[in-house]
Amino acid sequence: MARVGITETVLRDAHQSLVATRMTTEEMLPVLELLDDVGYHSVECWGGATFDACLRFLDEDPWERLRTIRKKMPNTKLQMLFRGQNMLGYRHYADDVVGYFVEKSVANGIDIIRIFDALNDIRNLEASIKAAKKEPGAHIQAAISYTTSPVHDIEYFVKYARELENLGADSICIKDMAGLLVPYRTYELVKALKDNIKVPIQLHSHFTAGIADMVMLKGIEAGVDIIDTALSPLGMGTSHPPTESMVAALADSQYDTGLDLLKIDRVSRYFYSLRQKYIDSGLLNPKMLEVDTKALIYQVPGGMLSNLVSQLKQAGREDMLSEVLEEVPRVRKDAGYPPLVTPTSQIVGTQAVLNVINGERYKMVTKEFKGLIRGEYGRTPAEIEPEFVKKIIGDEEPITCRPADLLEPELDRLRSEISEWYEQEEDILTYAQFGQVAVKFFEKRRNKKYGIDGKHLNLEEKVHPV
């Protein structure tokens, strides 16, 4: 058994899980060189919700963040999370945009692209994997969105992993985004995968239910090559198993990571002070660090649970939470058992809330739920009953092809639309995903650059870089 690799998530998924992705580049800067010296297999630092948060809340250019991290961490592989045909946005994008995003991600410093689809529809990964294959040195990690249902047995996951390997994946990640894996199920799943595929396997699981460290250990014993962890100040709770604990647990065994706990401790000390800052400011609610077994009982991810509570609170119906939690699996069954991850978790959860509040199932249907049933997001894991499809979409024609096949190339149109704000090629991709949010950021960026207060801008003073 080779040494187990560690992917450190403190710069992406850890703070996405605990503080709504609010860590700034300025907060990262003092510790990047120390992180680079640890010797991780990789550091996940980009993708997921970081792009949205940079633009919407932090007034940062996500591309500039990536370039800064790359410059400060020349010795470590940088990793990102990518939603396949959804990229980092919330709809499907044309293949030319997907391909260009992959190209620019690698050009700006990404080494490993973890690509997944919320429905495990392999057609939604084809364009991004094909694009990554063209980039010298890029590592394609295709992820399985793990979930439980009558159709999601070990045979299902093995079949999907084989398809991903055949499509060109350099490694496979078991992405347990909801923290649903349990130790012995993990052992069986990993063993079956190792018996059927040749590429390395990585394991990702959240600590929400308090068992992810045991999940990691059983996965390693079954042959997992790399695990995701988070430095302890931003580990546990809805984040990941603590890096220090896992490194210590594997030390002097056949699975020894080879990492130096003293080096890791130096990095940890910095993040302890940052965590305290987040707690003092109210950004980090200490409850997020607690164990919550509801994920195992209701099969609802921690982030989805908080969204359900928020929606009910806005409607003044917090007393209906238990009914909504019971409705979620029924809606999910009706919708073909989609894994609950962005965007399907929001779609299923919102529909469950509407069903309960209205006192009648599907009396009101969201546009997104209708799109899911119609096939706009891809093929669901289980076939949806034709009668239910008819009930939700009426006379509209279901989409059975790869959804992106219905999209015209977009790059030229997008480039034209943002000509007024263009400063770098990457701006086209930022705008493609976040539209008016991106435009507001571009405006602030230009105003700051030219010392304009943003209230009075003479049209003749606008600058159009060549």
General description of the model:
The protein is an alpha/beta fold and 466 residues long. The protein has helices at residues 13-19, 25-28, 32-38, 50-56, 62-72, 95-107, 126-133, 154-167, 183-196, 212-222, 243-250, 261-281, 294-298, 302-314, 321-334, 344-358, 367-374, 386-393, 411-417, 426-449, and strands at 5-8, 42-47, 78-82, 112-115, 139-145, 171-176, 201-205, 226-229. The chain has an eight-stranded parallel beta barrel with strand order 1-2-3-4-5-6-7-8, surrounded by six helices. Helix 7 links the parallel strand 4 (112-115) and strand 5 (139-145). Helix 3 packs antiparallel against helix 12 (261-281) and helix 14 runs parallel beside helix 16.
The percentage of residues in β strands lies in 5-15%
Can you give the mean pLDDT? Answer: 93
**Count the strands?**
8
The level of helicity is 40-55%
What is the makeup of the main sheet? 8 strands, parallel, barrel
Question: Which short descriptors sum up this protein?
Answer:
466 residues; alpha/beta; 20 helices
SSE layout:
Layout: E1 5-8, H1 13-19, H2 25-28, H3 32-38, E2 42-47, H4 50-56, H5 62-72, E3 78-82, H6 95-107, E4 112-115, H7 126-133, E5 139-145, H8 154-167, E6 171-176, H9 183-196, E7 201-205, H10 212-222, E8 226-229, H11 243-250, H12 261-281, H13 294-298, H14 302-314, H15 321-334, H16 344-358, H17 367-374, H18 386-393, H19 411-417, H20 426-449
Helix pairs in contact: 3-12, 4-20, 6-7, 8-9, 9-10, 14-16, 15-16
